[in-house]
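Please decode residue identities from the backbone states below.
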């Protein structure tokens, strides 16, 4: 997540993401998925979604998890469809990066 989160940095996250997730940096879990950056089922990316109105309120049309790093060849945007929504879970929201003394 360079330049927002530095490589190897210690960070504070807040569990229980509430309200809109739009443009927030989130720790996200996706079952049966491997993030190409980390090789794991968790990723830290900026959340973006497109929604559509339904009879019950709204539903996702598309969810994108976007790295802040502009190198898209190395750090691609992850895109998900409504079918993925039930397996996609926002675990926590990024609060701040900690600065440790040298």
């Amino acid at each position: 997540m360079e330049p927002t989160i530095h490589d190897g940095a210690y960070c504070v996250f807040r569990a229980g993401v509430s309200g809109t997730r739009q443009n927030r940096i989130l720790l996200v879990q996706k079952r049966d998925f491997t993030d190409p950056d980390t090789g794991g089922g968790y990723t830290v990316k900026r959340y973006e979604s497109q929604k559509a109105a339904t009879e019950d309120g709204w539903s996702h049309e598309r969810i994108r998890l976007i790295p802040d790093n502009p190198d898209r060849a190395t750090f691609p945007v992850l895109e998900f469809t409504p079918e993925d929504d039930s397996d996609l879970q926002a675990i926590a929201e990024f609060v701040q990066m900690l600065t440790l003394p040298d």
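Observation: Residues 11-97 form one domain.
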